[in-house]
Design brief:
Layout: E1 10-17, E2 29-46, E3 52-62, E4 72-75, E5 78-86, E6 95-100
Antiparallel strand pairs: 1-2, 1-4, 2-3, 3-6, 4-5, 5-6
């Protein structure tokens, strides 16, 4: 376990589409338990589309965690959409920051 993983004390569900049907529509969703750190607080961020929005929390994951904009983050039975995914550049600590609505 690395240095940053010891701070990942929260557990959330990542909901993602495992596959698509022959028309390209998503099939059933798959859930995965993930350890992370949730930092609640309002932040103004810029989405990949260039829109300015307010995020309700920053969720930090290991750098190796797969996460996409189409995924949903479930915290306390509430589904949150992903507004922004960032990978800060640091020489010693590697993680992903995911901002949710």
């Amino acid at each position: 376990m690395g240095l940053i993983e010891s701070y990942f004390t929260n557990k959330i569900d990542r909901v993602y589409q495992a596959s698509t049907d022959k028309w390209g529509e998503p099939t059933e969703a798959t859930e995965e338990d993930v350890h992370c750190r949730i930092d609640w607080g309002s932040r103004r961020i810029t989405t990949p589309a260039g829109d300015q929005v307010v995020s309700s929390a920053k969720v930090m994951f290991k750098a190796s965690q797969t996460i996409n904009y189409e995924d949903k983050i479930v915290i306390d039975d509430i589904r949150h959409i992903i507004l922004s995914i960032r990978e800060p550049k640091d020489f010693m600590i590697q993680f992903k920051e995911v901002y949710i609505a």
